[in-house]
Design brief:
The protein has a domain of about 50 residues. The chain is about 40% helix and about 10% strand. It is built from 4 helices and 3 strands. Strands 1-3-2 form a 3-stranded antiparallel sheet, with no helix packed on it. Strand 2 and strand 3 form a beta hairpin. It starts with 11 loop residues before the first helix and ends with a helix.
């Protein structure tokens, strides 16, 4: 899993990494912090299911992410490896040997 909205980390370094990943999952948009969590959740969810393929490519190049779980009606340039009525699992890339060697 790349990031989870509901699993906020405790340490400062992990919080920075969590926020960066949340920002990328939010279609590379900043996330306002504060007491508007419910609105944030709805906006982040919408943005995640409408994420730009360029952002998916950026995530995939920076992290070992090879699949994207989206909506089956999405028009993405990726192969669908599984689909049900609500979700589609897209193959974004194959594991990169270069990334794996650089990040053991």
């Amino acid at each position: 899993m790349f990031v989870s909205y509901k699993h906020f980390p405790a340490s400062q370094g992990d919080m920075v990494e969590w926020y960066e990943r949340m920002k990328l999952s939010n279609n590379a948009n900043n996330i306002p912090l504060g007491d508007i969590a419910e609105l944030n959740y709805e906006n982040i969810t919408w943005n995640f299911y409408h994420i730009d393929p360029a952002v998916i490519e950026d995530i995939s190049s920076r992290y070992p992410v090879h699949y994207y779980l989206g909506k089956p009606s999405s028009d993405y340039p990726y192969d669908i490896v599984y689909q049900n009525g609500e979700y589609a699992l897209y193959r974004v890339s194959t594991p990169s040997r270069a990334w794996e060697s650089a990040h053991p």
